[in-house]
Amino acid sequence: MSAARTDINKSTIANYAPFIGVRYSFSRKRNRFTSVIATVSMLGMVLGVASLIVVLAIMNGFAGELRGRILSLVPHGFVEFKDGGITQWQDLSTRISEQPGVVAVSPYITEKAILGNGQTQRGAVLTAIDPQAESGVSNLRGAMIAGDLDSLQVDGFNVVLGTTLADILRVVPGDYVQVTVPRLTVTPLGMFPRSKRLRVTGIFQIGAQPDAYQAYISLTTGQKLLGSKGSVDGLQVKTRDLFTAPDVMRALAAELPDTYVVKDWSQTQGSLFRAVKLEKVMVSLLLLSVVAVAAFNIVSTLVMSVAEKRRDIAVLRTMGARASGIMVIFVAHGLVLAAVGISIGALLGVLLATNIAAITAAVENTLGMKLFDPTVYFISELPADLQGLDVALVVIASFALSLLATLYPAWRAARIAPAEVLRYE
After folding, report:
1. Residue 119: how many CB atoms within 10 A of its CB?
2. How many domains does the chain have?
3. Is 72 a member of any domain?
């Protein structure tokens, strides 16, 4: 009978261990200093979790903005010939267009050049395109802020410039620029770099680096200026979905002869986006250290709670509580504090991330200044892209750190000998 009663008592204590831990977390009879430390730990958790969620959302927004702006001009894939240009590019274009997942194909010729206007010289990338076909593979037509992309097909030698490049050269539509390409022209006086005077007929703006170096001419002008004689450097390819482009281009490479080089945007622009992703990871780890500090502040809270509750622990042990039950009490005590901080921090972070644009505007109106000048930063407000997976990972990581922080104090509590405590009480 006595043994059965002891088992019942042990079972009861084990079942009530989490309940006792919760009661300890919200007890008003705690030492005031212990309460202050617990509150500071909770606020640190709130700050760390909220900051991490907001920063991740902003970095997602910047990555999306960067991807949207740059890839609005960069096609999803490229097909080039290993040795020289592609002469029968029309047939190859038709063959590529018939491949599954391919939406549009456009020919191009590209070369580095020097553009000049008076005493001002600037290096640029000169790309010859078919304006009609180009509209299928990029959003260049939609990025025009002056002039028209179709003006490249008008008789004469015309060029469309990025807005930053046009500002550097101090030209507007109707002005002329001198272009020099690394191709030689043989004359009776010797060999000279090939040069031509081009009329500016349009300006585009995407709000990214290509604005500062990219220039477009028509395919016909490019073949004349660069001496391509009917051939092109390669074909630009657009797929149905940006993120499936690598798979589509790999399938296309398997269908084409080995004499062709097939690349996708992740190979040509991948280093930039990998750098952005790495930066996101590093910033996340740095901010996670704030959460870790807040989590391990729980250690101080629990150590002081254990010191306060030594008599309670001794009484519970004499009533039949096991060491594991004592551990559960203090683990629950610490996790409740952490859970409150994490919940408030996650809610605050989500609210800030979803309203960051409005908050930025309010700060600008209050200070009477523009925090993000679009002429400098290419953006007028903080972009934010809140992703549920990021929020979930932050919450899980914070909870895991908090759980680790509770183990040592809980283990120390379980090792308290009730006889020694009660002897001096």
Report:
1. 5
2. 2
3. no
